[in-house]
Amino acid sequence: xxxxxxxxxxxxxxxxxxxxxxxxxxxxxxxxxxxxxxxxxxxxxxxxxxxxxxxxxxxxxxxxxxxxxxxxxxxxxxxxxxxxxxxxxxxxxxxxxxxxxxxxxxxxxxxxxxxxxxxx
Length: 120
What we know:
The protein has 120 residues and is mainly beta. Helix content is 0%, strand content 50%. It contains no helices and eleven strands. The chain has strands at residues 3-7, 10-13, 18-25, 34-39, 46-51, 58-60, 68-74, 77-82, 91-97, 109-110, 114-119. A hairpin with a 2-residue loop joins β7 (68-74) and β8 (77-82). The protein is globular.
């Protein structure tokens, strides 16, 4: 059974940084894409970033490109380094896993989420 657990959320001032972590269990996901999505209050869930199983291919939403960096250090651990955070980044951030090596942002599994709050 796939299980995704996020950690690292919290409260930070605008301009600050946070690093989110995701630990996946249940299988070896080294050939599968992983990523992050987020949902702000009153808004639809949106794509944030994706990284391929090898870690070599990455893609970001325009709103976070240049400020966020997604990475993997093995088959089942992924990170999201978030710099220069803005109040508009406030959301619940979800770790996500695809059944494919790469996807246009459609995922098949999600974690429970971790809250990120950016104060102005």
